[in-house]
């Protein structure tokens, strides 16, 4: 850089400063905002979220972590706008193939202060559980590389410590593998069931009812669902009105605050996943018996 260029560069930097300050000032007390951060240490081999695992983050009453799966996708910009209007930071569990197709949206998530995690490369319809171990590992690795290339411009960057299994279909071997790669595994504590057909009003009512029952937790949405994009502004307003606080997950190296499940804990997802996978295997065997490919499913089972 010549001296003139350096001066121009500095002038541009200083010109940009008041803009950043005024954007922050827009996040007044009338906005939901982001109350605090929790650091996730990927070296601890954690699996969190009471719907699948007997422990979750140690959240206080009325604290929520917002997570969005299966993006980036067409409704993602609408989701990002809604979050920005309320100064809320979220975590996105991205499908590698989608990140490859829409890297600008992954970059935007990073630029707007959100956290990105991984959700496999292909979100395989048969799930990672029904793949061979090597195939499943390769799908996980490819997903990390694709998201890192889109988010940070470097496929070989060490993973961010956030992974969620497509359809919650983990296995002990795959949990070990994900942990060995320095990632915590995230299930959820509350979900919006936004893979079901429903109106934004129905989704809003359902997720608020569930949240009021649990009182806190890691909430799962899908940013590829237009219904969720339509519902989100009202959901964020409702959180504000009901006194909820948003907690943002960030990578860290300290001890992750974890709370163990109470006695009598049961997995919500295990029986559902077993049932879905049995049906899938049955379909597959039937198709093989008829010596023809199973019909293309229009939609995945959503989780
Ligand atoms: Zn998914």
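-> sequence recovered:
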């Amino acid at each position: 850089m010549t001296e003139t260029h350096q001066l121009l560069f500095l002038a541009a930097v200083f010109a940009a400063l008041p803009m950043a300050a005024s954007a922050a000032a827009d996040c007044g007390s009338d906005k939901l905002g982001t109350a605090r951060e929790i650091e996730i240490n990927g070296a601890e081999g954690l699996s969190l979220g009471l719907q699948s695992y007997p422990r979750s983050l140690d959240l206080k009453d009325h604290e929520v972590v917002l997570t969005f799966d299966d993006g980036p996708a067409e409704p993602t910009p609408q989701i990002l706008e809604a979050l920005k209007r309320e100064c809320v930071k979220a975590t996105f569990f991205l499908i590698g193939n989608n990140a490859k197709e829409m890297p600008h949206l992954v970059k935007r998530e990073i630029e707007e202060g959100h956290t990105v995690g991984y959700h496999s490369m292909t979100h395989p319809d048969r799930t990672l559980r029904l793949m061979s171990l090597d195939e499943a590992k390769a799908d996980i690795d490819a997903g990390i590389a694709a998201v890192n290339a889109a988010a940070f411009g470097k496929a070989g960057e060490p993973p961010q410590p956030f992974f969620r299994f497509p359809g919650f279909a983990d296995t002990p071997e795959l949990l070990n593998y994900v942990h060995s790669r320095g990632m915590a595994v995230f299930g959820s504590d509350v979900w919006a069931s936004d893979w079901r057909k429903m109106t934004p009003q129905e989704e809003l009512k359902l997720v608020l009812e569930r949240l009021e029952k649990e009182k806190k937790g890691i909430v799962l949405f899908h940013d590829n669902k237009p219904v969720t994009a339509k519902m989100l502004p009202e959901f964020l307003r409702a959180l504000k009105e009901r006194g909820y606080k948003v907690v943002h997950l960030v990578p860290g190296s300290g001890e992750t605050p974890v709370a163990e499940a109470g006695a009598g804990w049961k997995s919500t997802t295990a029986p559902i996943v077993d049932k879905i996978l049995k049906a899938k295997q049955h379909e597959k065997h039937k198709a093989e018996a008829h010596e023809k490919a199973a019909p293309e499913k229009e939609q995945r089972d959503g989780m």
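The domain at 33-262 is CATH 3.20.20.370 (TIM Barrel).
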